Amino acid sequence: MGDMVSPPTGIDLLKAELPVDQEAFVLNGDVKTGLVMVDLVNGFCTVGAGNLAPMQPDKQISGMIEESVRLARAFCDKKWPVFAFLDTHHRGVPEPPYPPHCIAGTDEANLVPELQWLENEANATLRRKDCIDGFIGCVEKDGSNMFVDWVVNNQIQAILVVGICTDICVLDFICSALSARNRGLLSPLQDVVVYSRGCATFDLPVRVARAAKDVIAHPQELMHHIGLYIAKGRGAKVVSEVTFS
Ligand SMILES: [Zn+2]
Question: Which SS3 state, helix, strand or coil, does residue 79 take?
């Protein structure tokens, strides 16, 4: 009996039905690429930091931080453009359906300790946003869009997206960027690339959700996969490795 192959889990079966083919992404400098980092803030990434922070150490989230820091360091060393969203809300202004999180002026709304140095990098643009979709969060009072300006001013041809949550803020931003690109708003942008190991989402297993009131289950591995699957279906490229040549 010990030699038997274990039967496929529900997640294995769903992944087989919703395959996400991934390739390796090599940055050689020929295609002007910008790094977009979504919400690497304490309120989503640091254990115990708030209502939407992990309650215990989380492998997917710590791996996402590690890979994001590696890429941010490499982009900054090469003086390539980096754009970082920081989820930040005014106290007393709710963001349904979520509980209060990342309140302005608290450490929840600050970059994780491993990325604090980004604040002093000349080629990094930091943008606080008070909504899920960072593209919408970049709309200014005069109707201009700070993210559009960043792409156009830097003549960015590809964006590489990392961050949290794969199926929420990362996905919504990717979908909006793809629509904006298709409408010609982001010229010369061609490719929207999402790095699977550079993304993560939160874990709320179905057994925990069932025991709580008014909570929707959100199994981490599956929702991460579904986020990537939808991004790919909308036209993003999903990559499993990012290297520099
Ligand atoms: Zn938020």
Answer: coil
For residue 177, what are its two tokens?
Answer: 């960027």
Per the document, the length of the chain is 245
Give the Å distance between the CA of 130 and the centre of ligand 1: 6
Record the tokens describing residue 9, joined without a space: 């889990």
CA–CA distances in Å: residue 209 to residues 14, 58, 69, 200, 203: 20, 18, 32, 19, 10
Q: How far is the CA of 153 from the centre of ligand 1 (A)?
A: 27
pTM (predicted TM-score): 0.96
Reading the block at residue 236, the tokens are: 């993003």
Cα separation of the two ends of the chain:
47
Q: Which domains does the chain have, with CATH numbers?
A: 19-244 (3.40.50.850)
Q: CA-CA distance, 205 to 106, in Å (whole number)?
A: 28
Residue 120 near residue 126, CB atoms below 8 Å: no
pLDDT single digits (tens) 196-206: 999 999 999 99
Q: What is the pLDDT of residues 114-169, one digit of tens each?
A: 999 999 999 999 999 999 999 999 999 999 999 999 999 999 999 999 999 999 99
HSE-up of residue 130 (Cα within 13 Å, Cβ side)? 11
131: CA distance to ligand 1 center in Å?
5
